[in-house]
Design brief:
Layout: E1 5-9, H1 15-22, E2 27-32, E3 36-38, H2 40-46, H3 53-56, E4 57-59, E5 68-71, E6 74-77, E7 81-84, E8 89-91, E9 94-97, E10 101-102, H4 114-130, E11 133-137, H5 141-153, E12 158-162, H6 174-186, E13 189-192, E14 207-212, E15 218-226, E16 231-232, E17 251-252, E18 265-267, E19 272-273, H7 280-298, E20 317-321, E21 325-329, E22 333-334, H8 336-344, H9 349-355
Parallel strand pairs: 1-2, 1-9, 2-5, 9-18, 11-12, 11-15, 12-13, 17-19
Antiparallel strand pairs: 3-4, 6-7, 7-8, 10-16, 14-15, 20-21, 21-22
Helix pairs in contact: 1-7
Bound molecules: flavin-adenine dinucleotide.
Flavin-adenine dinucleotide binds near residues 13 and 101.
EC number: 1.18.1.-
Pfam families: Pyr_redox, Pyr_redox_2
Organism: Falsiruegeria mediterranea M17
């Protein structure tokens, strides 16, 4: 019997893993606009260690054994196919859309070119090396890690980390944010809390200039990094019948991660407003659910008979401040050793290189 066709749009943390897990069971097509997968967590450290760039962009050519990875941009989705901007259409019994999100440069590619992403990262890295002062606007995980990476690799710079919240990581027990603040201050970072930057000149790339805070303080810096969050990429599905865009720009979904009137269309990851954050940690819960559910559905069982998806109640989080120190919340606040061992040391680079069939450092 012919295998069912699954078309997956977006080869990020959701798409690559779901495609690989179903490769043997279904006729899988993964549609991805870029020639390589990029690891944003490691793109932070690449700014202070540009040699990492060679290790954190992973070509798709060894990902699937049976299925195909098609390089292209999907522009429309129907119940039975996905169409690219070239006009090529890929028939599907099931469709997974995981188009993710965009982020300010140089942390994720802004377009489909990996060469341009590498150049943007290298340019900012060169500016950073020369900068005497840095201001980071936004103290979520990216801003906090960036401050820690710069302080660890380039001590002596003036680094200011600015947050509009009154404490770091306000969604987590106070101990996590308090310990991270203390460690950042210990390596010389000036942590400014409860202040909003009023006049960011660019939201999408670093620049030299000044920002004015809510209390009127003006902070001048050789490099200002706007790191104020991910923007979901939902345009592909906005005209599909039944799709609802949530207030965050993410798409609503039913209990089986289906966003529309099409019963065979699923979403996950940063695109999906299903109660999880826009994190890889979220995909570590969503991907296994999606893979298990799709396996059952491929075997002919109705979707509605499967266990509904339930999001993380409070997702774990790992915040390295460079390769050695950091804090994490793994259902309790933990410190340097666990954070370093689990993430700070290698940023999961070997794990993803292995998944992409690249075992050696440069292989
Ligand atoms: C700097 C940074 C650091 C981060 N660090 C962490 C961390 O340490 N831990 C953590 O849990 N989370 C982290 N995150 C968040 C994490 O990167 C995202 O949650 C994750 O990438 C989401 O995965 P995804 O598969 O939903 O989307 P993405 O990874 O964004 O992948 C989407 C893919 O879809 C492709 N695509 C989009 N539209 C189309 C189209 N129309 N046609 C074809 N292809 C398309 C894109 O090219 C992209 O490859 C970080 C984010 C950033 C920016």
């Amino acid at each position: 019997m012919a295998k069912k066709k699954i078309v997956i749009v977006g080869g990020g943390y959701v798409g690559f893993e779901v495609a690989q897990a179903l490769d043997e069971l279904a006729d899988v097509t993964l549609i991805e606009q870029r020639e390589a997968f990029v690891m944003p967590p490691a793109a932070i450290r690449a700014l202070v260690d540009p040699t990492l760039l060679d290790q954190i962009t992973l070509p798709y050519d060894k990902l699937l054994k049976s299925g195909q990875v098609v390089r292209g941009r999907a522009v429309s989705v129907s119940q039975s196919s996905v169409t690219l901007d070239t006009g090529d259409a890929y028939p599907a019994d099931f469709i997974v859309v995981a188009t993710g999100s965009s982020y300010a440069a140089p942390f994720k590619p802004s377009g489909d070119s990996i060469a341009e992403f590498r150049q943007a990262s290298a340019d900012v890295s060169a500016q950073l090396a020369k900068a005497r002062s840095v201001a980071i606007v936004g103290a979520g995980a990216v801003g906090t890690e960036l401050a820690g990476e710069i302080a660890a690799a380039q001590p002596g710079k003036s680094i200011t980390l600015i947050s509009s919240d009154d404490r770091l990581f306000p969604m987590y027990p106070a101990k996590l944010g308090a310990q991270l603040k203390r460690k950042l201050e210990g390596v010389g970072v000036n942590v400014v809390l409860g202040q909003r930057a009023q006049d960011l000149r660019h939201m999408d790339q670093p620049y030299q200039g000044a920002v004015t805070l809510t209390d009127g303080t003006v902070i001048e810096a050789d490099l200002i990094f706007p790191v104020i969050g991910s923007k979901p990429q939902s345009s592909l599905l906005q005209n599909v019948p039944g799709v609802t865009v949530g207030s965050s720009g993410r798409l609503k979904a039913d209990a089986w991660l289906r966003p529309s009137d099409y019963p065979n269309l699923f979403i996950a990851g940063d695109l999906a407003d299903v109660g999880d954050g826009m994190t890889i940690v979220a995909t570590t819960r969503q991907n296994p659910w999606l893979i298990k559910t799709l396996k059952k559905v491929l075997a002919g069982q109705p979707v509605e008979r499967q266990k509904p998806y339930s999001p993380w109640k409070k997702a774990p989080i790992l915040i390295p401040l460079g390769p050695v120190i950091g804090n994490s919340w793994l259902f309790a606040t933990v410190g340097n050793w666990i954070t370093r061992t689990m993430k700070g040391k290698d940023l999961f680079i070997p794990k993803y290189r292995k998944a992409f069939g690249l075992t050696s450092e440069r292989g």
